[in-house]
Amino acid sequence: MLAMNFRGPFRVRLDRDKPLPEIKHPEDAIVRVLRSCICGSDLHLYHGLVPDTRVGMTFGHEFIGEVVEIGSEVKNLKTGDKVMVPFNIACGKCVFCRQELYGNCHESNPQATAVGGIFGYSHTAGGYDGGQAEYVRVPYADVGPTIIPEWMDPDDAVLLTDVVPTGYQAAEMGGIQPGDTVVVFGAGPIGIMAAKCSWLFGAGRVIVIDHLDYRLEFVRNYAQCEAYNFKEMNDPVVFIKTTTDSLGADVCIDAVGAEAAGSAAQTLTGRKMLLQGGSTTALHWAINSVKKGGIVSIVGVYGPIDSLVPIGNVVNKGITIRGNQASVKRLLPRLIEHVKSGVLNPKEIITHRIPLEEVAEGYHIFSAKRDNCIKPVLIPPTAWAS
Amino acid sequence: MSTDETSPADFKNIRGSEYSHIKGWGIDANPENDPTYPMKNRTNGEHEGYTWDRPSQQEVEVEVLRSVERPNITAAFGTSVPPSGLSGKLRRYAFKSSESDYRHWLPLMLADRVNVFEGIIDDFKHGHVPNFFVERGWTAEWKYNRKEFVTKAVAGVFIASAVVAAVVLLKKNRSRVPG
Ligand SMILES: NC(=O)c1ccc[n+]([C@@H]2O[C@H](COP(=O)([O-])OP(=O)(O)OC[C@H]3O[C@@H](n4cnc5c(N)ncnc54)[C@H](O)[C@@H]3O)[C@@H](O)[C@H]2O)c1
Ligand SMILES: [Zn+2]
Ligand SMILES: [Zn+2]
After folding, report:
1. Atom of ligand 1 nearest to the CA of A281
2. What does the pLDDT average to over A21-36?
3. What is chain B's alpha carbon radius of gyration, rounded to the nearest angstrom?
4. How far away, in angstroms, is B81 Cα from ligand 2 center?
5. Which DSSP letter does residue A270 get?
6. CB contact under 8 A, A117 and B35
7. DSSP 8-state assignment for residue A226
8. What are the tens digits of pLDDT across the range A341-360?
9. Which residues in chain A touch residue B76, judged by CB atoms under 8 angstroms apart?
10. Nearest residue to A373 (alpha-carbon basis) of A262, A215, A229
11. Domain containing A123 — which CATH number?
């Protein structure tokens, strides 16, 4: 089958002869992929920042598809079902899954306890091949995969496997109270969705910070919010303080993660020399610009080693920090309603529909932010009609 | 050398069950006060320990490395790329230490870099010459960033030829020096 193949930092290719995935566990299903996105999280792998990313792996954790085979213990799915597959691999039985922490399953990743299994996301997240391929093995098929409603556009469905729930949970973790000023760092797909969803929790003002003008312009329109370029500020923290009566924002959301720009020292130590779990510039700004007693919500992904953050200010300001991998399965029912009612229009953020065969170009375009790219979707040759 | 290697029997929690000897025990407990609300539907099932009815165990047919922070291999796991070669040796070494230890992550990062070279050798072994230009997606540069791309390429060629010319000149000069 066709499948993306990771060859090393900044190098991926399409293989034409990867063996088809097989049922390895009685609760597995095999899914024929219809759409598969490239995510900002994939860029961390692509840039070589995630430990135990082995050459030969197929990435891809945001995908939808058609069930073509099921294991002996799968009860809720049958062949022919079209499903959206949450990026988290979750057993549904462990103590964490039973409390709806589906991003923190204890039965899907032998290689690490700090993160559950994620499709196509290195061996640190379980060693599963992902969905940037024609077919993919989906473990615990009765738990995560959710039937795509008849009325739903596949482009909306594929964004419900990660981007929408992650943006929504970013806002939810912010504990936004009606009237709150919310600052979102990052105007990528996740930040855009976090800004949009902040209104759903009653935000009084939503401000997005990034340095890519085309994304700022997009989010301004898409999420009806304010958006500012940090390159035009002397100091983003002072900017936020001045625009919030000197008190600071009620809630700050980090939707940037390990590859933040904006500080030469952070970039050098976090992204080039890999002495930290990434560059923490955005998180640093979030902590320093939130109000005393405020909440910092982190969905930006960082590496597993130590990262420099102004922890003293967290203590002195009495800040609550919340973060997690989004619990996609928990949020899906509500988010499907939001798509149905038109409250959310996820597919509008898709800027690039790319044949799976051109996966290497797709990665480069998204990574280098070429052609005003916001969200690229890969489409296998067999899926163009659907 | 000390490592953190664990065996399944190491994992147990010996809890108390009766606290009447502790004055004021639990008088201010407030189960509502949960900073993880609403992300977590709290049941406190953790107090029961690792006792849930586990899913069936996937057969371990390839080498799977296990975090020393857990007693077993998870019921399901990925089999994408089992460890092999020198990078595999480094990965096995890394898994002797915990996720809390640099001796876990640094060898893994090193293994990833070694793995890139193994990948290139492997490609050649299979008669495949890796096309770095295509793998790096530079075909897209040609489409969307042509001017800068061409400028950079020309500058690259220019610098390279300048270096070659300098080396040739130096050599010539040296060969003229008698003795
Ligand atoms: N927690 C989860 O469940 C989850 C799920 C998906 C993605 N993520 C993470 O969310 C992050 C964003 O993902 P994405 O797909 O939007 O990626 P992206 O790379 O498209 O977007 C990141 C944006 O941040 C901007 N940026 C860089 N430095 C900044 C700074 N200092 N301040 C403000 N903005 C800055 C970039 O210009 C870019 O527009 C990534 O770290 C990704 O791994 C987390
Ligand atoms: Zn993602
Ligand atoms: Zn679980």
Report:
1. 31
2. 98
3. 29
4. 21
5. I
6. no
7. E
8. 999 999 999 999 999 999 99
9. 24-25, 27-28, 89, 91, 107-108, 117, 139-140
10. A215
11. 3.90.180.10
Residues of A within 8 A of B55 (CB-CB) are 25, 27, 91, 93, 107, 140
> What is the pLDDT confidence band of residue A365, given thresholds at 50, 70 and 90?
very high
Contacts of B10 (CB under 8 A, 6+ apart): B71
Same domain membership, residue A138 and residue A200: no
β-pairing, A88-89 with A82-85?
A: unpaired
Residue A229 gets which letter from DSSP? E
Q: What is the CATH number of the domain that holds A260?
A: 3.40.50.720
Q: What is the pLDDT of residues A96-132, one digit of tens each?
A: 999 999 999 999 999 999 999 999 999 999 999 999 9
- What are residue A31's DSSP bridge partners? A67, A136
Quote the Cα angle for A160-A46-A236, to 5°.
Answer: 75
Per DSSP, what are the bridge partners of residue A152? none
Q: How far lies A102's CA from each of A170, A209, A296, B52, in Å? A: 15, 30, 21, 16
pLDDT at residue B175 in the model:
65
Q: What is the pLDDT of residue B176?
A: 62
Cis-peptide into B38, omega within 30 deg: yes
**Cα A362 to ligand 2 centre (Å):** 15
Q: Do A41 and A103 fall within a single domain?
A: yes
pTM: 0.93
Instruction: Give the pLDDT mean for A224-252.
Output: 97
Which ipTM score applies to this complex? Answer: 0.90
The verdict on A313 and A172 lying in the same domain is yes
Distance between CA atoms of residues A198 and A168, nearest Å: 7
Domain limits for position A130:
3-161+327-383
Question: With contact defined as beta carbons under 8 Å apart, do A52 and B112 qualify?
Answer: yes
Q: Indicate whether residue A346 lines ligand 1 (CB < 6 A).
A: no
B112 vs A: CB within 8 A: yes
Best of B74, B101, B122 to mutate (most A CBs within 10 Å, chain A): B74
* Residues A249 and A144 grouped into a single domain: no
What pLDDT is recorded for position B179?
45
Does A47 share its domain with A196? no
Query: Do the beta carbons of residue A74 and residue A141 sit within 8 Å?
Result: yes
- How many angstroms separate the CA atoms of A42 and A115, rounded? 16
Domain locations in chain B?
132-179
Q: Which regions in chain B score pLDDT beneath 50?
A: 179
Q: State the DSSP string of A173-194.
A: HTTPPTT-EEEEE--SHHHHHH
